[in-house]
Amino acid sequence: MYFGLTDEQLMMQDTVRSVLESECPPLAILEQLKTSVEMAGPWSTLSEMGVPGLLAPEKLGGGGFELLDAALVAEVSGEGALPGPLLGHQLAMLAIIGGGSDEQKERWVPSLASGERVGTIAWAELGDRWDPNSWTVRIENDRLYGQKVHVPAPAPSGLVVVGTAPGGLAVIDDASTGVELSDFDGIDRTRPLVEMQFDGAVAEVLPGGPDAAHRLRDAGCVLLAADAFGCASRIMRETIDYLSEREQFGTRLTQFQGIKHELANMAVELEPTRALWWYAAHALDHVPDEGPRVPAIAKATIGDRAMRIARACVDLHGAIGYAWETPVHLWYKRIMFDRAFLGGSGYHRDRAAELAAW
User: Fold this and answer.
1) Quick one: which of 22, 170, 235, 276 could link to 331 by a disulfide (CB 3.0–4.6 Å)?
2) Do 313 and 270 fall into the same domain?
3) Nearest-CA neighbor of 333 among 129, 190, 230?
4) What is the mean pLDDT of residues 124-146?
């Protein structure tokens, strides 16, 4: 049995990686962030490649791929600090595929798969309420009332999947009426957030109900874990390159024993977690009994380890690690986002323990 990626999966990662390096390298992202808070990234190029529709069925214009394939793209997007709506879009797509009726899928999925329309999800509520069972946004006569926070910024003509009480999902096809948007000063400026106030916004319920909402949360954990893994891998490489150029007392910093040990410890801490998010993605599609638990473990474990690695890498850069002259803070802040979005590490460890009946 071969425990590795296929040639097609490796080629897909290499192709996406080359697009990010050519169209939005980290230094270019850094320059753009100095003057703008809106960053679309190479969305049109990724759409031509079929990335927005990886998870959509082939009959609806998508690639018909599995969650692991989407997670592999998420790893590369973390490596490149990809700006834009990919995370929210993938989750909105999964919500409709997993919770929508046949008619709803036929109506919305093709335009989402092509990238013509951009989707997002409105999940969290005030009080750090990420769990679907705690949602309070209500739907009455096909209209939404309540508030959502930490929402990946929706596109002007985009589609929004909203979590509703008690653990359901509803879709806003037109957010121009009944929705008030407020900017939110998030930590990761490559993925801006907003707050949404619903006052009678027209919405359509997805019949999948709580089962679809919980599976969507689990899939989101996998994508965030993969993104954080990619971020940690890249910030380590950037740090090694920096230390290989810097000298102290006529010696390259990478030759100092203490620094060697620090870098080795990072690699030993991170690399084994690759299999963790790979298996979490596989389990959601193929091992139903472990599906909900393993993604929770992956997100909590990788989020914490990636955060420790990012902090150490910033420290190893010295004072410049805290300045805009180097892009290392892009990955640091992105990891902070990945660790917090859809719930922090403690929340997911508690979930994993409960699911294991500990």
Assistant:
1) 235
2) yes
3) 190
4) 95
